[in-house]
Amino acid sequence: MNHRIAVIPGDGIGKEVVPAGIEALEATTGRFGLRLEFTDFGFASAEYWQRHQRMLPADWEETLRAFDAIYFGAVGWPTVVPDHISLWGSLLQFRRTFDQFVNLRPCRLMPGVRSPLADREPGDIDFLVVRENTEGEYSSVGGRIFEGTDRETVLQETVMTRIGVDRVLRFAFEQAQNRPRQHLTSATKSNGIAISMPYWDERVAAMSERFPRVRVDKFHIDALAAQFVLHPEWFDVVVASNLFGDILSDLGPACTGTLGIAPSANVNPDRHHPSLFEPVHGSAPDIAGQGIANPIGQIWCGSMMLDHLGHSEAAAHLLGAVEDVLALGPKEAPLTPDLHGTGTTAELGHAIAERVRER
Ligand code: NAD
Ligand code: IPM
Ligand code: MN
């Protein structure tokens, strides 16, 4: 079966890990008689900005809408364009325009990977962060008033709509109901953020009535951050507003050894629009250009893309190859420095693609 995939490498290590991701995807589709037709786009990058003084061409929406999915690296190069301009001019537009209201971010301690937390083994940490992805704290409602005076005031509203909150909660409850542990944790802060967060809690309570088999608990975000480190084994599905989900989805992968392996699926579950698959990490200017970025986040989100496109067996095969290579450890496999190895992005990408072909 053929699918058309828009590829947007973006900036920094996005441009380094995307080729490894495509190599692994092509190895997988070769094994399963599938065909992905990749089309590369240079927009949503600092280079595009330097040429055009904007992040996207005027017709980006109709261009991308024609694809079955978007395979995205990372965007952001703050020495050329301020982050809020590059991100609001690209990735955040994609999420909103294509109504990708769920951001699914699995967090798993993989075989062969050392957690910075003592005595944790594969199986101990395996949860799914379901992040609200189109509203909440990420809003463009607000502004500056009395600028330049001593009454200078800056407002930025959190927006929670009933439709927006309920649809991400329903998705998270469905995920929890379909997992063996049937446990859902809600991230809140209703003690301090006394308007939006009590509303979030109310909608969680209302939704839980429709899912009687799912055990529900909630933590304030500060305490939850601490429990991620102290008791990551407690968590199964964690549902959170946009900002809380953003923070938890960097913290979770840090507990599982490295941000470099964490994948992310920006999903439009209604399938009216293309979904977008990207690693959790950014463009990592501190290591960009050295060829040492871990490509596994990018490769794993390729597996999530295959699953989304209806090829669950191929998706599992690809993720299995990642696990096989990780399980060899840094002595036997060309793991990258964040995994205590000396391998390069390309070497690790080749090793995974080869494993896909032979397993
Ligand atoms: P970052 O995720 O780029 O980097 C954080 C740290 O993790 C750095 O030390 C980096 O070297 C390390 N790291 C990240 N990915 C890695 C990988 N694959 N292998 C090994 N190490 C890895 O976050 P940041 O530094 O806050 O942001 C840098 C830029 O990326 C900014 O412009 C930011 O806005 C942007 N950003 C974009 C996205 C995205 O496109 N989805 C996500 C996060 C940040
Ligand atoms: C992520 C990133 C983005 C976000 C930034 C770059 C706007 O951190 O995808 O997690 O906050 O959503
Ligand atoms: Mn983030």
TrEMBL record:
Q: Which top EC class applies here?
A: oxidoreductase
A Pfam family: Iso_dh
Cofactor(s) the protein requires to work:
Mn(2+); Mg(2+)
Reactions mediated catalytically: (R)-malate + NAD(+) = pyruvate + CO2 + NADH
- SMART domains per record: Iso_dh
Which PROSITE patterns does this entry report, sorted A to Z? IDH_IMDH
Give the EC number: 1.1.1.83
Q: Which UniProt keywords apply?
A: Manganese, Metal-binding, NAD, Oxidoreductase
Q: Gene3D superfamilies annotated for this entry?
A: Isopropylmalate Dehydrogenase
Keyword field contains Manganese:
yes
Domain Isopropylmalate dehydrogenase-like residue range list: 4-352
Q: What Gene Ontology terms describe what this protein does at the molecular function level?
A: D-malate dehydrogenase (decarboxylating) (NAD+) activity; magnesium ion binding; NAD binding
Matching PANTHER family: D-MALATE DEHYDROGENASE [DECARBOXYLATING]
The family classification in the record reads: Belongs to the isocitrate and isopropylmalate dehydrogenases family.
Q: Name the chain's protein.
A: D-malate dehydrogenase (decarboxylating)
Organism of this sequence:
Micromonospora sediminimaris
Taxonomic lineage is: Bacteria, Bacillati, Actinomycetota, Actinomycetes, Micromonosporales
